[in-house]
Description:
alpha/beta; D-Maltodextrin-Binding Protein, domain 2; 2 domains; five-stranded mixed sheet; globular
Amino acid sequence: MLRTLELLASDSSHLPLLTVFKESRVMEKYGYELELDIVGGRKAPTMAHRAKLALAGEIDFLSGLHHETYRERARGEKRLVYLAQAQNNWDDRLLAPPKIAGFRDLSGKKIICHTKAPCVAGNLRAVLESCGLRPDEIHIEATEVASGKHLDFVDRVLSGDADAALVDMPFDLYGQKKGLHIVDLPDRPVIHNTTLCVTTDYIKANRETVISFLKGFIEAVHFFKTRPEEVVRILKANLARRYGLEEEEYYAHLQREWARLLSKKPYPLPSAIENVYALDVGKDPAMKSIGPMEPWDLHYLRVIDDSGFIDKLYAS
């Protein structure tokens, strides 16, 4: 009989990979099945529930929690740790009408952002400043977009209510099909989307489960990268209702773009860690006593990698 592992996703932007992780059933060979929940559901009605559920042992693994882990350590709570990071490059897309030809045209313009999270809204501001816009020229209106409302969010730009919108995939394609275009911005290394988080209590009590979960996660990334037709079917079957997009081309786009972004070996980039750390410290100077690497425990990923597991997976 399979044991159920409870995995909580912080946001719908994590679902492309995590849905494939669950529906590909790669965990069954290890004796497990996944129960995938998302913040806003029954188990975790709000973001504030994530750390509480993990620390109380009410979930097995968490995807996300990119900033709270540092804040918790600054307060003396050191049990939350990151095990792996599947994506190190920003995937958000800035959509705008043709009149916005480049970032200079965004000066003083209203940009709507789909979440207030520092790893999204904070990175957008930082990117625009790196392009040369002054802080007083940047007008970002960040709101939490409810599930199923992303199309309405893009439509605000189409109606003229906003000058540009930062969106997740595949809503970039929806905007492009409506006549908007993607404003080219510099790449930015980030700790983003599917960052695996767990507690040290859980690791101590479930070491073999942790290793099996990481192996399954690595296999899910391989599945996503190498079996596009199956991935597109899974994505469409599980996300079409949530996204409000029925056409297969959106899920082919999602698979293609995510496959390019996902790391075969899910280590975080040092520059990505420095980014999330700087965003945290900038918001809360009390965290300056916490080192950038303190919440990271890559030992278990290293054990798997050194065994040749990942190399053999891709060699086949």
